[in-house]
């Protein structure tokens, strides 16, 4: 199926420094909140926006003697995500404690999976335009707990802590350093988000912080990256800096752009990039040092003794695999292959699974893929966007839009009438075929009636007839006049043929 | 005999026969507790709760609905969360902490009809072998030599002292490296640490999660069998609780161990071991042989590495488990000075809240887990742990049914006697017991005799995993043969 979508890798982004050209090497660690009603190790709710400290179980607040118990659904979601990224599923994984003190981390450690993650190597195809895509390798996915929220701006002297998010399940999805430019990095996050949403394993809501990325950026001279690829030796690459906690694609691009130029300036000045963690300030569009390697926490990772190694069975994984939805790449390929859509249209329609489902609903009624794509993308999306509606809020159902396209396809209505019909259905509702019938919107294919109208127009415009005989292109003017006279209901190709015949063109 | 001196088994039979009521036994215990402040065993007394539970138990007994522990008054180690009743692991850092939840073990006991007399002191966070690290001051052993006050051992020292002095019929303990078995031996009572995973850790304040296990401390082996049956359960709230049914341990006490193979590990014969301990051990061997068991010399070659490995693993886990005591949500929070921030709050709170031994272990644990030392200490200790477990596995695979060792390297020592000693000397108290925790096995301490000073001494039996019934039966035979019936004379 994917044969329809052969691709070439994009060219790496090249930034011209003062002295030389530079390339970027980027890897991302995406923290995706697992879609689950309950937390990773407690039964507490994960509902966003609840009263502070209302979704907190004893174990989330780290009360003495409380113990974590793994939420099977969260494990299934991680496995589903792994399968969606064509990754290796580790039947045996284990949880470790990452120890550090922070008021919104009640246990004093985060339970994570450092040594034995649940998902191993996979890949994501990041589309960069028709026929161009980057294959980004996924190193691992592990499950871990989110921390709570510290609030420092409510009181001049005190800080507040909200533990609602404490213990919510996160998947940390770690890529290899395969990304070669800011646009690719944003596209990677976009594609990952799309796949997660298709899988239903993360809602991808970046505003609420449900999808956040740590971005590792380094620079190298052209050719160095290829040497790294051949040898796997990281010394060919520059020292990386990690930009923490980015929750917007736009900021990811801007931060990488800024960070690359900062590193280039340092190196071209004869300096050395220091490995450190940095924060991006969108107001000033710059990254700032958060802590250096020397100041880095010693997390004292060790196996969490409260949890036995997580052992899952292949049969359970197979059951999850059997219920996997069709993913964006496959769906896009099928839309191109089965419906003859352009790769561009197929991309637009598969961007969100709801759009793709809507489109397929339209095709099911009208059996016209291209027509359906045209109407969904150009008319429906345009109209919804204008009014700020989501696809789920569309007043026109797939069946209704399919009915409209079907009427066009059968020649019952013209494209122009169809737009009027769409407007009626959009604002008033109703069955398109019945509306066409009731309001006499049917296209006139009766040659007798059309001929009469043509004759009248020719008879009424002798001067134009003379001109048209000199310049056959003017025939279009007659077609327009006939269409006007018939209220747009005449079949345009029939009119065109008759006009040409009568004018002897 | 007053009612507080009853064993669980005797009380159970008397209660069922209607010869006595739970309220009567409970009142006897409350009176004994009131007269025993000198022992400092109870850190919280709950006579109102006790009498209420006793009345309810009497009603159940009357209705003929009397589970195993119905009407039996118990003391509860301060490590177990008891809903609405102070639970502070004998630490200032949990000052005033009253949980909103009940530990699985205590809930199981209440469900079985037991009665709570109060909370029992212990070494702070179960770290210690003498009960001198308790924030409530040391617990005193009811056994005495001259006028010298002795330690009841630790960390379950309050439990041991209370049971030995008849301040309850039995008590809960917990054992991470010997904290049930060593104090049991020091006070002439029975204490069993079950197989790791037999008893739920939910609601028990954690010291070292991979080693901690709760168990009963009782006046007889039969009582240990009855009470272990009530404490144990398969608990979905504890991921390390094993999904293995709890058998009727008491039914296993047949008194017949003919043909069983008892292993005597040569590595437990330490240089400089007191002659009395050596003799006690030999006596125990003779008793089991006389009962028809076959005595086999065995080797557990990695024993000598157990103590160092334990004192890496246990502090490592503790350093992480105790990170939650930060002054943010509950317990003690230090008063802060002007300009103090979150770091100062952590530092001052923990410096004030934790005693020196806890601080020492948190620092050791933090050190052995830190980057650059992790492999040399923690990972190496884990490998040693695996080897120690394999030593036992091989012995059991050779057909050994139980292993007999001393429980402690000495009898009870004086309070304050180790104050100026190197902490490692105190750690040596665990030398015979830590291997059992590292291997996750069941181990029981049984009082077998008195030393020349008139102090009790115990022997330890180590059993196959999940074979507590068989282990208890061996202990039962040893108990019967030893006929240990000495009691401390009341001075308090």
UniProtKB/TrEMBL annotation, chain A:
Domain Asn/Gln amidotransferase: 357-503
Matching Pfam families: GatB_N, GatB_Yqey
InterPro entries, per database record: Asn/Gln-tRNA_amidoTrfase_suB/E, Asn/Gln-tRNA_Trfase_suB/E_cat, Asn/Gln_amidotransferase, Asn/Gln_tRNA_amidoTrase-B-like, GatB, GatB_C_1, GatB_Yqey_C_2, Gln-tRNA_amidoTrfase_suB_CS
SMART domains linked: GatB_Yqey (SM00845)
Entry keyword set: ATP-binding, Ligase, Nucleotide-binding, Protein biosynthesis, Transferase
Keyword Transferase: yes
Gene3D superfamilies noted in UniProt: 1.10.10.410, GatB domain, N-terminal subdomain (1.10.150.380)
Assembly behavior: Heterotrimer of A, B and C subunits.
HAMAP family: GatB (MF_00121)
General function of this protein: Allows the formation of correctly charged Asn-tRNA(Asn) or Gln-tRNA(Gln) through the transamidation of misacylated Asp-tRNA(Asn) or Glu-tRNA(Gln) in organisms which lack either or both of asparaginyl-tRNA or glutaminyl-tRNA synthetases. The reaction takes place in the presence of glutamine and ATP through an activated phospho-Asp-tRNA(Asn) or phospho-Glu-tRNA(Gln).
Protein name: Aspartyl/glutamyl-tRNA(Asn/Gln) amidotransferase subunit B
The species this protein was found in: Pseudothioclava arenosa
Taxonomic placement: Bacteria, Pseudomonadati, Pseudomonadota, Alphaproteobacteria, Rhodobacterales
Automatic annotation (TrEMBL), chain B:
UniProt-annotated catalytic positions: 77 (charge relay system), 155 (charge relay system), 179 (acyl-ester intermediate)
Domain of life: Bacteria
Enzyme Commission code: 6.3.5.7
Enzyme class: ligase
Xref: InterPro entries: Amidase (IPR000120), Amidase_CS (IPR020556), Amidase_dom (IPR023631), AS_sf (IPR036928), GatA (IPR004412)
Residues annotated as domain Amidase: 24-472
Keywords, alphabetical: ATP-binding, Ligase, Nucleotide-binding, Protein biosynthesis, Transferase
GO cellular component, one term: glutamyl-tRNA(Gln) amidotransferase complex
Reaction(s) the record says it catalyses: L-glutamyl-tRNA(Gln) + L-glutamine + ATP + H2O = L-glutaminyl-tRNA(Gln) + L-glutamate + ADP + phosphate + H(+)
Recorded GO MF terms: ATP binding; glutaminyl-tRNA synthase (glutamine-hydrolyzing) activity; transferase activity
Family: Belongs to the amidase family. GatA subfamily.
Oligomeric form and interacting partners: Heterotrimer of A, B and C subunits.
Stated role: Allows the formation of correctly charged Gln-tRNA(Gln) through the transamidation of misacylated Glu-tRNA(Gln) in organisms which lack glutaminyl-tRNA synthetase. The reaction takes place in the presence of glutamine and ATP through an activated gamma-phospho-Glu-tRNA(Gln).
Protein name: Glutamyl-tRNA(Gln) amidotransferase subunit A
Species for this entry: Pseudothioclava arenosa
